[in-house]
């Protein structure tokens, strides 16, 4: 296990060190305590949608083993834990009164974190939309944003006294692109550019959620968007125009309305009627901007017959993770400094709300898990964060994705992102070398 090239003292004393997870990926207990079905329960139950026909009925069983997982975080020494509420566990149908048993589970989790000296950082929505809301139109329907505001108010009222950092919507880009445009994720729609209204309705839900949380007395409220640089494969005008189109769809469709109160002009014809009236709500001031970073994208002008204004290409010349992502820490620095350049004073302090990689992790005969590629990944990406901070980017915290190996959506259990290895047969937790490396970094 190597030493870090980014010692603790190179970050401010008040810098937040954390780990992150998502409810559907780790909780299991999908039929417990009155929890209703989500779009991901439906999707995983559809033949051919998930690798090896796997599902999240048990996954890491965090629902029952959360005290053990809190103990792991306490030993790790993190300041904060970013988790997500399961909307169907709070409101089985996506509307109406809260489910007391669901609220009680999160009471136990939040109280356990507070007792361990770990700050709870709550995400309200990490893709597990209650199935009845999808049946009524899902994120294509403006009403879903209104239902989300009601849900946010329930959680704010119950937990604002203990949770001081809130994220209404996680990665709306993924829901729009993977869920509604190309169908790789739940709910499995293939609308291509006609999926763009789902982005607007999630942005609106974000703004309504910010207002509902603040009205309930919540503290710091922000966001968590997946971002990455978009690189044209050549410098010619056609490839550069294609890169602009993809950058708008992956990055600016979410950041511009939240931070600047407007959408990129290229999108006007794809947004729902009357969208401009919602912009003041979407642009409700936030206390921090969450950045989830994994990789850059390469793009070229579309070939003949392509219905999209761009064509994805592979980023060449870099090693790849077992999830087939190129490892490009320099692109992380480019992203952060580019956001400061593009948004200036409109950009609030940043938290890196997700950053991590999948590796081929196995428990050795000696009972340990060696993951040098992850240690190297985290070290280099933290160095990129430090470099961006030296160039004036105000970064206040860093959350590793993920605490635990988990259900990785349509790819099932093959990709392992955790600092802690999970044996899915026995549910035994084994801290990896990266866990010990991160603890050493945090300890200073």
TrEMBL record:
Query: What chemistry does it catalyse, as a reaction equation?
Result: Hydrolysis of terminal, non-reducing beta-D-glucosyl residues with release of beta-D-glucose
Positions bound to substrate: 25, 126, 170, 294, 401, 408-409
Q: Under which EC number(s) is this enzyme classified?
A: 3.2.1.21
Question: GO CC terms on record?
Answer: cytosol
Could you tell me which PROSITE patterns the record lists for this protein?
GLYCOSYL_HYDROL_F1_2
Alphabetical list of InterPro entries matching this protein: GH, GH_1_N_CS, Glyco_hydro_1, Glyco_hydro_1_beta-glucosidase
GO BP terms, alphabetized? cellulose catabolic process
Q: What is this protein called?
A: Beta-glucosidase
- Organism, by scientific name, is Amycolatopsis antarctica
């Amino acid at each position: 296990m190597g030493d870090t090239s980014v010692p603790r003292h190179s970050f401010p004393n008040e810098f937040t060190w954390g780990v992150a997870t998502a409810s559907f990926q780790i909780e299991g207990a999908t039929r417990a305590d009155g929890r209703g079905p989500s779009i991901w329960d439906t999707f995983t139950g559809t033949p051919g949608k998930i690798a090896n026909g796997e599902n999240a009925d048990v996954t890491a069983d965090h629902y029952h083993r959360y005290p053990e997982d809190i103990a792991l975080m306490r030993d790790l020494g993190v300041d904060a834990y970013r988790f997500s509420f399961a909307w169907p566990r709070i409101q089985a149908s996506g509307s109406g009164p809260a489910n007391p048993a669901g609220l009680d589970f999160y009471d136990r989790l939040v109280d356990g974190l507070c007792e361990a000296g770990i700050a709870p950082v709550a995400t309200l929505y990490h893709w597990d939309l209650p199935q009845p809301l999808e049946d009524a139109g899902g994120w294509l329907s403006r009403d879903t944003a209104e239902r989300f505001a009601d849900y946010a108010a329930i959680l704010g009222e119950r937990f604002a006294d203990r949770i001081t950092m809130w994220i209404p919507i996680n990665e709306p880009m993924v829901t729009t692109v993977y869920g509604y445009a190309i169908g790789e994720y739940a709910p499995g729609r293939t609308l291509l550019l006609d999926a763009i209204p789902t982005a607007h309705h999630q942005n609106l839900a974000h703004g309504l959620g910010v207002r509902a949380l603040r009205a309930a007395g919540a503290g710091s409220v922000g966001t968590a968007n997946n971002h990455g640089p978009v690189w044209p494969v050549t410098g010619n005008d056609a490839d550069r125009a294609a890169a602009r189109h993809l950058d708008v769809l992956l990055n600016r469709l979410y950041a511009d309305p939240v931070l600047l109160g407007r959408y990129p002009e290229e999108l006007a014809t794809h947004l729902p009627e009357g969208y401009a009236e919602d912009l003041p709500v979407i642009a409700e001031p936030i206390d921090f901007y969450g950045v989830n970073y994994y990789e850059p994208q390469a793009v070229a002008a579309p070939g003949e017959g392509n219905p999209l204004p761009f064509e994805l290409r592979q980023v060449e010349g870099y090693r790849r993770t077992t999830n087939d992502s190129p490892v490009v820490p320099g692109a992380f620095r480019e992203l952060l400094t580019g956001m400061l350049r593009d948004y200036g004073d409109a950009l609030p302090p940043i938290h890196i709300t997700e950053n991590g990689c999948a590796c081929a992790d196995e428990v050795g005969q000696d009972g340990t898990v060696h993951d040098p590629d992850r240690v190297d990944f985290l070290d280099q990406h933290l160095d990129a964060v430090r470099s961006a901070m030296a160039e004036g980017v105000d970064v206040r915290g860093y959350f590793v994705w993920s605490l635990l190996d988990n259900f990785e959506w349509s790819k099932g259990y093959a990709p392992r992102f955790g600092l802690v290895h999970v044996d899915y047969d026995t549910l035994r937790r084994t801290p990896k070398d990266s866990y010990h490396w991160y603890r050493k970094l945090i300890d200073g």
